[in-house]
Design a protein that fits this description.
Distance between the termini: 18 Å
CATH superfamily of the largest domain: ARM repeat domains
Order of helices and strands: HHHHHHHHHHHHHHHHEEEEEEEE
Number of helices: 16
Strand content: 15-25%
CATH topology of the largest domain: Serine Threonine Protein Phosphatase 5, Tetratricopeptide repeat
Helix content: 40-55%
CATH class of the largest domain: Mainly Alpha
Structural class: alpha+beta
């Protein structure tokens, strides 16, 4: 599989140069490509993106607004997606002396890829002023701009730095979340849920107070609440479980718990199966999950995965079969050693198996 960083390759930079050149007659396309690809091989994905911003700044006009207006034309001529983040990155790096213009530009560029990382540079410097603008974005007709309001202000956005001001005072983003709680865009709903899930790790009570006050009869709001509570449900948080009629005390028997092998290699799958039987006198709503404690050099690293939700009547049983593939990802590297698999029902660990992974 080709590394992600190769999306920023010479062919892309030739296309980028041509798109900028079509909007700026004085742009030296040949020297831009030469400069931006110089010693590029050892740069990571995000290092290449940042290097692109720096080199563009050297080749574009000294006037910041002129440069951004050129980029606004250029972005329409290259494929949408991650590569377009070079334009918001440029603004996050050089646009702080003209904040109003820069924020408007970020709202424009976000429809082509996303400005979620760049906006955080402004939130870090002026959280209150930037959030005031982002609150207006939460009411925009574009789902991309509405999503930016939520995603950009997430306290723990992956691949970015934490927003300390919001982690310290979570109520700062409350108005944004309230405006988006009934949004019908799947793109926006997922962002709002992830924003709330971030809070569940640092301000559990606050997060649960918010979702408890929302109307679950609205289908969009209900989806957001359920997705936002996923981490707390997996951990067996009693208040989160009760929001969805799950009980922390379950009358369930786990039996015939088996794994396909007690030793696997990287690139292989581990299959496991088990039987759950209700021993209660009333129907029970069950959230069935499994946890893998990955071996790390620094110690076990648990990761909980969702299996299914099911209602079991008294004496009723289900047979569950699952395969888990073990392969390195950009977000997870595997190490050789003892791993542990646990079956979890409504936050209760009902069984565990050990196996060795050879990585």
């Amino acid at each position: 599989m080709e590394p992600l960083k190769e999306m920023f390759n010479k062919k892309f930079y030739q296309q980028l140069a041509a798109s900028i050149g079509s909007a700026c007659k004085d742009f030296d396309e040949k020297n831009f490509v030469k400069d931006v690809t110089h010693d590029m091989e050892d740069l990571s994905l995000n290092q290449r993106m940042r290097n692109t911003s720096v080199v563009m700044q050297k080749h574009l006009p000294n006037d910041y607004k002129k440069s951004v207006n050129i980029m606004k034309k250029a972005v329409t001529k290259i494929p949408r997606g991650y590569v377009t983040l070079i334009f918001p990155d440029f603004i996050g790096l050089y646009g702080h002396d003209d904040k109003e213009f820069s924020l408007e530009a970020l709202s424009y560029f976000t429809s082509f890829g996303s400005s979620e990382f760049a906006i955080r540079e402004f939130l870090k410097r002026d959280p209150l002023g930037t959030l005031k603008v982002m609150e207006t974005w939460a009411e925009d007709k574009s789902e991309h701009i509405r999503c930016l309001a939520s995603e950009g202000s997430r306290p723990r956005l992956p691949w970015s730095f934490k927003l300390d001001a919001i982690l310290k005072e979570p109520k700062l983003t409350r108005n944004i979340l309230e405006k988006l709680k009934m949004d019908d865009s799947a793109y926006v709903k997922k962002s709002v849920a992830n924003h709330l899930n971030d809070f569940s790790k640092d301000h559990t009570g606050y997060m649960l107070d918010i979702v408890s006050s929302w109307n679950k009869k609205d289908p969009n709001t209900a989806w957001i609440i359920k997705h936002a509570c996923r981490t707390l449900i997996k951990k067996g948080n009693e208040r989160a479980l009760h929001l969805f009629d799950f009980k922390t005390k379950v009358d369930v028997d786990l039996s015939n718990f088996k794994i396909s092998s007690d030793k696997i290699s990287l690139g292989e799958s581990l299959q496991f199966d088990f039987k759950l039987t209700s021993t209660g006198k009333k129907p029970q709503l069950l959230a069935v999950d499994y946890c893998i404690h990955y071996y790390k050099k620094t110690g076990p690293s648990p990761k909980v995965f969702k299996l299914k939700e099911v209602e079991l009547k008294p004496g009723e049983a289900i047979h569950v079969i699952k395969k888990q593939l073990f392969q390195d990802l950009t977000t997870r590297k595997h190490y050789s050693g003892k791993h542990v698999l646990e079956i979890i029902v409504n936050g209760n660990i009902l069984g565990k198996k050990e196996f060795m992974l050879e990585a």
